[in-house]
Amino acid sequence: MVKKFLDKVYETGGAAETRKLYDAWSDSYNDEVSENGYQTPTRVARAMARVSRDQSLPLLDYGCGTGLSGGELRAAGFTTIDGADPSTGMLSQARETGHFRELIELDLSAPLPFQAGQYHAITAIGVISTGAGPASLMDTLMDLLPTGGLLGFSLNDHALEDADYLAGVARLQDAGHLARVKEYGEHLPKMGLKSMIYVFEKK
């Protein structure tokens, strides 16, 4: 019997514990999320494509996991995609997809290894959530973008019930960044979970 992880992921705490969970999950991740009808990668990728001015410019898929989101971004028309993730197991799966120009293994105890302006678009799909990326990641990723750059991310129902994550969205709005997309819809429908997807343009 294949071990299931979706019931654990939202309760995981700490970078080391999270990385360990995703390493263990890497071989069965695609099957488990597909069984539950995972919709958020498709929704974010299509939203990004709707508002992107140039899909050939470099895009960073932060928290790329097994490459599912990279595949959706490529299907939506993005051609220059780098992926980054702290899980060695997940990156091993992503490497097999061929969706990425480059894959970067993240050390979450160190500053991010990217230069400001290096990417014209960044996605964090299914990443910013309880048990995964903190709300402050919205600010960190926005800081990496040039003026006019796009940040696309999702907040699932668990995150939408947490004041820290709602405050993170409010900070982006208060800083003057333009909300180009805000749409609530299916996330993991077989589990009864939905998500809000956002695309912000940096002022």
Predict the CATH topology: Rossmann fold
User: What does the radius of gyration come to?
Assistant: 15 Å
Q: Total number of helical segments? A: 9
Number of domains: 1
What overall geometry do the principal axes of the alpha carbons give? Answer: globular
Which architecture would the CATH scheme give at its second level?
3-Layer(aba) Sandwich
CATH class placement: Alpha Beta
Number-wise, the strands total 7
Largest sheet: 7 strands, mixed
SS content category: alpha/beta
Fraction of helical residues: 25-40%
Describe this structure in words.
There is one protein chain. The chain has one domain: Vaccinia Virus protein VP39 (Rossmann fold), CATH 3.40.50. The protein is globular and about 40 Å long. Helix 4 runs parallel beside helix 5. It is of the alpha/beta class. The longest helix is centred in the N-terminal third of the chain and has 12 residues. Helix 5 links the parallel strand 1 and strand 2.
Give the arrangement of secondary structure elements.
Blueprint (H helix, E strand, L loop, with lengths): L5 H4 L5 H11 L3 H7 L4 H12 L7 E4 L5 H8 L5 E5 L2 H10 L4 E4 L15 E4 L12 H8 L5 E7 H4 L2 H12 L3 E11 L4 E9 L2
Parallel strand pairs: 1-2, 1-4, 2-3, 4-5
Antiparallel strand pairs: 5-7, 6-7
Which tags fit this structure?
203 residues, 7-stranded mixed beta sheet, globular
Give a quick precis of the structure:
The chain has helices spanning 6-9, 15-25, 29-35, 40-51, 68-75, 88-97, 137-144, 157-160, 163-174; strands at residues 59-62, 81-85, 102-105, 121-124, 150-156, 178-188, 193-201. With 203 residues, it is an alpha/beta fold.
